[in-house]
Every structure is written in structure tokens, then in C-alpha cells.
Amino acid sequence: MCSNFEPATLDQIEVIIESQYALNLDGPLADYKPHVYPKDYCPIIIPTEDGMTVVAGQFGLSPKWADKPVDYSTYNARLEGIENKKTFEPPFTHNQFCLVPMQAFFEPYYINGKNHWQRIYQKDAEAFTIAGMFEFNPHFDEPIHTFTLLTHNADDEAFMSQFHQPKKEKRSIALVEADKRAQYLEASHNEIIDLMSKVEGDRFAFGEG
């Protein structure tokens, strides 16, 4: 699971999408936080008819049928059985996938039974994109985009299995590599698994942050 992260800067996002883009900085993106937690806003990349577009997304998916923010955790969505989840099934089966640009994310690391939060980042310090799913909710006083990070079991992953409580299931978010980003945004829900990559120790490192 991933409950907090450092979003990429706007300059880094411009490099990621490889083009100039129109961005309204009068709203939640005017001063988005350098460290994002559930309910905070940050930039996400969504598909449009004209290609990639950057919008402000609230961390924690609010389903389209909700008339107010949900009172349970929706910042991560387990890929296993996602089609059977009332909150996540509609955007999943309607292929509403997004990219979440990050500089780093944080996971708990236990030493002698005590949690030490670790900052996980690319060794080259470059930004990267994480597989997400979004919803647009028009029913709130101010219509918003919201999003969740897609997760998978990481029990057998050498790098990501180091985190979270001992003897508990290990979960991980997934990378979308640069050459797969456009495909991921346009993919059907039956195709996205093949467009995701694992977070691995050859490229990533961690330390207390």
C-alpha cells in the first residue's frame, strides 16, 4: 500500500509528457503540497481526445455515484478482485486510467518491531509515473477528479517485500515506464497488467525520510 508520496514538480511533469500543456493554476494546483496524503490534491495525467492532459486530482477515489466524499479508504485499489468492488468497478471497467507522477513514495519499514518510514526514490533522482485510476465526480459542490493507486501482491518481490509489518501480506504500487505511458492511458482494463512494471532495487533505493 502507499498512503503518502512526493508528487513530481510541474517542470518534471512537462518533461514526462514531452510537450507544453495548458494548465489552470488558479485551482488546487496553484500550491499543491510537496508531500501528499489522502484527500490532498496533486497533478495527475489523464487521457483526452487530444492526448495527455494534466489535472488536479484528489488522492482517494470518490465514486461517481457518491454525493459526498466517502468515509472509507480509497487511496489504494487492489487489482485482485477489483471488478467486484462497488467503488472501483465502474472506473476500472470503463478504462479510466491515469498516471501519477512522483519523486518518491513512502512505506513502513520495521526494525525490532518499530516502524521507520522510508522514502523510496529512483537512484538517478528522476521523477517516475505510477499506475493509477481516476474518476470525475460532478455531484459535489465543486466537481473534481479523484484517483487511486493500483496495487498488487509483492510477497515474492525482493525489493518491495522488505516493507510493511513482518508476517503480513506485502503490497506494492506499480510503475508505468516511459515507453508504455501512452498505451497505459489508452488501454482497456484487460490490458493494463502487461503495461505495468515492478519497483526493483536495481533502480530504486530507500532511506529514512
Verbal overview:
The structure is a single chain. The chain is mostly beta strands and 209 residues long. It has a single domain (5-18, 31-208), classed as hypothetical protein yedk fold (Alpha-Beta Complex). Helix content is 9%, strand content 36%. It is built from three helices and ten strands; from the N terminus they run E-H-E-E-E-H-E-E-E-E-E-H-E. The chain has helices at residues 10-17, 89-93, 181-186; strands at residues 5-7, 41-48, 51-59, 76-78, 97-111, 114-122, 128-137, 144-153, 171-173, 204-208. Strands 1, 2, 3, 4, 5, 6, 7, 8, 9 and 10 form a ten-stranded mixed sheet that branches. Strand 5 (97-111) and strand 6 (114-122) form a beta hairpin. The longest helix has 8 residues, at 10-17. The radius of gyration is 16 Å and the shape is globular. The model has no long low-confidence stretch (mean pLDDT 92).
Question: What CATH architecture label applies?
Answer: Alpha-Beta Complex
Number of helices: 3
The CATH superfamily bears the name: SOS response associated peptidase-like
Low-confidence stretches: none
Q: Given the C-alpha coordinates, what overall shape results?
A: globular
Q: What profile does the largest beta sheet have?
A: 10 strands, mixed
Q: What amount of the residues lies in strands? A: 35-45%
The overall number of domains is: 1
Computed structural class: mainly beta
For this structure, the CATH topology is hypothetical protein yedk fold
Q: Helical proportion?
A: under 10%
CATH class: Alpha Beta
Instruction: Report how far apart the termini are.
Output: 17 Å
State Rg.
16 Å
Number of strands: 10
What is the mean pLDDT? 92
Along the chain, the helix and strand elements come as EHEEEHEEEEEHE
